[in-house]
Amino acid sequence: MKLINEMKLSVLSLFFLLSMSSCMVVTIPANLGKTIIGHENICDGDLYGAGEEGLEVQQIIIESQEELESLLDKMSSINPTSCSDILMTVDFNQYDLIFLLDRVRGSGGHSIQVTEVIKLDNLVLVEYKHQAPTGMATTVLTQPFQFVQVLKLNSEVSFVISE
Known about the structure:
Layout: H1 2-20, E1 34-37, E2 40-47, E3 58-62, H2 65-75, H3 84-87, E4 95-101, E5 111-120, E6 123-131, E7 143-151, E8 156-161
């Protein structure tokens, strides 16, 4: 039992370091109590304001209607966002939203997406990746985003980019 607790502490320490560093490969031991959390893509797309919305690259958990409305106001400040109607139906008593926003890109065809949500004791890891276009892409400034719905997390959350 002591060995398992030491492994848990080591892995949690590793995840803390991961969140502070720019790139690290992490393997989660199979015996650590890893649980995959189901998630559903609610809306994804691109902002087309060339960054004028003033939104920086971010990965956040939205836990209330007020947080969502504030974010949507900023997202729609330059051009309307097509997600507003479906996002307003989220029941924040049962669900949280994971929001990913990539940097401004110089062409179309880029995306950002959650690949897996994993629960380890009191820590939730959200793995995500960026996808670049293959072949020819339109020349337009875009800023990819994604909203993913998950059951209430009630845990510390760390974001991990996967390649």
